[in-house]
Amino acid sequence: MAATSNPGEVPARAKRADALRNERTLLAAAAAVFVTSGVDAPIREIAAKAGVGMGTIYRHFPTRADLVVAVYRHQVEACAEAGPALLAEADSPFAALRQWVDLFVDFLVTKHGLANAMQSDNSGFEALHTYFLDRLVPVCAHLLDAAADAGEIRPGTQAFELMRGIGNLCIGHDSDPRYDPRRLIELLLQGLRLV
Q: Domain containing 86 — which CATH number?
């Protein structure tokens, strides 16, 4: 069913379920390639990972910036949706927080190349950053509150501070293979624990 938001506007056509599934598969493949090879990875590498032709990628995302922004939004949504799911499935709220932080780190590794890929579109980058904060800070806060309520971590850690600290630890990951931010992030998480 088509929806119209304003009179006189052409109705927007909803994507078919299989088209959405294919797009999600393509975005997940692109995200995985961006984590290992950076946002400048060849499109053919992304196409091979997704099991599609390069034309399919260009049909959905005419420019690299379009693809990077779509991956960014896809990963933000995946992180946002993962929080409650992990909390429901994990052995403990702290275990859910740790698993969520792993997803967040994967996202951050991809995100670092976003500014370069978008080049001069500062307003677009800022809008994405606001979207990122609006979607993920509440999820992180919920995980922290659950772990504090369960007596697993000290209360009072602010989600924004934790996310910013993790983000700062991820800087430089791609420029020095000797640096592993995940090890330091694990130390940071252990520092939140009640002994």
A: 1.10.357.10
What tokens does 110 get? Answer: 């991809």
3-class secondary-structure state, position 175: coil
Range of the domain at 103: 17-192
Q: Is residue 6 part of a domain?
A: no
**Domain count along the chain:** 1
Closest CA to 69 of 19, 18, 129: 129
Q: pTM of this prediction?
A: 0.77
| Mean pLDDT by groups of 10 residues along the chain of 195 residues | 45 65 87 82 93 90 87 90 96 97 85 58 74 95 97 95 93 78 93 87
12 φ, ψ (degrees, to nearest 5): -80, 135
